[in-house]
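Okay, can you check this protein?
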Amino acid sequence: MFELRKSFNFEASHVLERHDGKCSRLHGHSYVLTVIIEHRSLQRFGPKKNMVADFSDVSAAVKPLIASHLDHHNLNDTLKTDSPTAEYIALWIYRALAPKIAWLEAIELRETASSVVTYRPSQRTKERAARRYHDWDGRENEMEWDSSEEDYCSDVSGTGPDMNGMSRGVSTGSQNGHATCNGSTNGRPNGAANGKRDVSTGPANGDEACTRSSQSATIPG
């Protein structure tokens, strides 16, 4: 099995409007986005012979997305959510890139020197993404994601679909290590599974960037 990684940088601001700490104030991060591709074999013919994927093709898919929605943008505006957490951003990027990058395995997003999120979809989600990749013909609204996916549901803001028809929001709970959707009313989730969610901790090297508490916290419904 081959694993390819291609990294990109972008600067962005955001606000976690519902957060119970300093992340509820406007702030920004220097993000490092890593696209991870996995495949078991090399291409046998043509201009990409003995490659899994051409890094320049990966850049061609990722850089326009960074320019239009991520770099030097307020992520609350471009991702259309009141809580663009690192987890949410990684999931959003995966879904935006899945129809454009073959064998996309995961998205890694580094928010600070000590805070990193990796979104790695279930096998079912990867299979669906592979079908979208092979069907994709460049149309802007090709991406359509089922709101019943185990790792994604309507955002608490209930404001509808965002880029490429993607339903907005991350689910507000976890069970056995998997995010869950616990039903919704008017596009709002009914609350977190077990009422808790673990979040990552703090900066390194005196970094004053916003960090979330290491305590489990109740997520409002």
